[in-house]
Amino acid sequence: MKIINLSSIANPISISVQNPSRSDYDRFIGLEHYDSGEPVITRFQGTELLTTSAKAFKANDILIARRNVYLKRAGIVFFDGITSGDSIILRLKEDTQKTIGYSREDLIRYIPFMLNSEHFWIYANKHADGMNSKRISKDTLLEYEFELPSIDEMRDISDKLWAAYRLKEAYKKLLVTTDEMVKSQFIEMFENVESYCKLEDLISDTFPGEWGSEPISENAIKVIRTTNFTNEGYLDLTDVVTRDIEPKKVVRKKLKQGDTILERSGGTKDNPVGRVVFFDEIGDYLPNNFTQVLRPKESVNPVYLFYALYNSYNLNKAAMRAMASQTTGIQNLSMSDFMAKSIVLPSRDEQNKFEQIYRQADKSKFELKQCIEHIDKVIKSLING
Question: What are the φ/ψ torsions at residue 317 (nearest 5 degrees)?
């Protein structure tokens, strides 16, 4: 084992690009393009609309988000591009074989994972400055001290880590392919259907959610927030809050399997308000006050109704944005406009056939996600020891 600090193997890079839209770079990485805990940054956007200066990076540089370090955002890039001042760029030194006995190529394969270890993020959080948006400085980052395994052990660990990462990426691509298959099946089955119905005529009950108060009683109930929404239409319940809510409101507004939950307030630049998720959980949950529950009539297949709205949203984000007003940076959906939307309405038999396709795909996705979770555990065990 060799104990070193980051400054002995990496240099901070700060090459300013004053006019990104007129530069030779066509890829920009902002904080929104990092994926928490992932050792590789793969997402980016074009530079044609950028109006502020940025910093240039090269393939095999490592980027670290200096803001909100608790989000654990650091990764290597395999292309040239530019990034904002919210990123710290590290470039591994060329002479590491001479200075510490480890080649630059070996370090490039190992360091991106090391910078996603618990040891590193504990250090980053401990030494970050600020209260609400904790930031780590370049100098503090370079002082980070860690152990390097022997060269043979490092190569062995790196081989296993990259094999696991590639396998996980393959499973993630299968998830995307499965979603695309469901989408294409929906279009193929219903693109020629000429029967339409207003959404309001398909809903038996609709109501906004509740936020309640900080839980102090034994009757607190789990509340689903828009942060539990995913862009794929399912709920991520790994972080669910509990709240005290009046018993009569709990009785009135408790979610039922088959409900569609609508994001009626919130939204972002890329994903305007109007996302929907399907509620298929067991247990007592209430939606929060940024949401609206859409409970279908018995004559409508709940899965079909949800997916029709989900597909419509992804095809018509501009229309959703037009339905929303904005106050204090929050988009608020016009429910009267939304409920007046026209929905393609095939026969109930056709709706039921689509549900079978959706359920089978959902089962496959569940199995793929379990595989991904298992791989993530393997990666973490290799990183953290």
Answer: -65, -35
Q: What is the pLDDT of residues 226-283, one digit of tens each?
A: 999 999 999 999 999 999 999 999 999 999 999 999 999 998 877 899 999 999 999 9
pLDDT tens digit string along 6-31?
999 999 999 999 999 999 999 999 99
Q: What is the pTM of this model?
A: 0.87
Are 285 and 279 within 8 A, CB to CB? yes
Handedness of CA 194, 276, 44, 60 (dihedral sign): negative
What residues does each domain of the chain span?
A: 2-148, 150-191+346-385, 194-345
Q: How many CB atoms lie within 10 A of CB 152?
A: 8
The domain defined by 2-148 folds into Adenine-n6-DNA-methyltransferase TaqI; Chain A, domain 2 (3.90.220)
Q: Strands 276-278 and 260-263, how do they pair?
A: antiparallel
Q: How many residues does the chain have?
A: 385
- Homologous superfamily (CATH) of 194-345 is DNA methylase specificity domains (3.90.220.20)
Domains 2-148 and 194-345 fall in the same CATH topology: yes
- Closest CA relative to residue 261, chosen from 301, 285, 234, 293: 293
